[in-house]
């Protein structure tokens, strides 16, 4: 197949090609003001004799060329597989990129644009086989790690696994393997439950829960890999009693766990992956990273700002610090009020949103004084006008 283009139209097509190239670059690269950049790809993984491709979002710092790796993977509860994409957890990937990691958010085979099909066989309530399910997904994570570690911008010696729900349980499966492929694990609401109706755990399924506990016990046996677990009190699938059984089993053979039992979160405690949960997760995450000598958030640059604010504005600023990136804070030209926005995918977008919020609430012109964990030049001039 070919297209015939008249000579007088070639300049038009040249402009279109250049515009397309510019658009592509804007998608794959950071702007001049961004500290991190995104890359979308289909990550090839080898599973036995088959090659599959996982839809992946990679977020990494702009500066530098060799970073520790964090592999991030989703859960599946109540999700429409075709509509779930790695951007679902982009806020987590951005947070870790700002900590100095290269973050790869993947979705399982059969989800989003990933090829293959999702392996969903874990037996049933009378004949559970949780290991079949978790070992298969642990194999997929291992294959993703193998490919990611070939990237020239990845330091293969430091790898953190962060999983949600079945992703958390599958990360513990991977961490428990004899080659100890993970440096550390963050497990958010991790587990597997049996259902007849999607999103609703079957009742009277105690044998299945017993099998899940047995698997967690095996994952922890003789395993020194540091792990951090989060479970909310109102998780409908892995409530406090079951979470404590999983914890006791994992620790019984020597598994290392920092356990954080959280109060009820919203209407569904299984949704700790949401941006709004960061107020609960962020302190535990950074404490865990620091204890294990892994890159963590550094907000020291904002200390002069906090000390210069009024008590009311300081309280708002402390909430700002715990939000996910990208984020920006603004203050009115008279130095009063502290307004912020967070969670968008570019610093330019969140900057404009913070300014709009400040100007709408204060009725005055506003200036940006902080972006993520960094002060903006000239912030003192606005603060001292109060």
Automatic annotation (TrEMBL):
Keyword Oxidoreductase on entry: no
Secretion signal span: 1-32
InterPro entries, sorted: AB_hydrolase_fold, FrsA_esterase
One of the record's GO molecular function terms: hydrolase activity
SUPFAM superfamilies linked to this entry: alpha/beta-Hydrolases (SSF53474)
Record keywords, A-Z: Hydrolase, Signal
Name used for this protein in its record: Dienelactone hydrolase
Source taxonomy: Bacteria, Pseudomonadati, Pseudomonadota, Alphaproteobacteria, Hyphomicrobiales
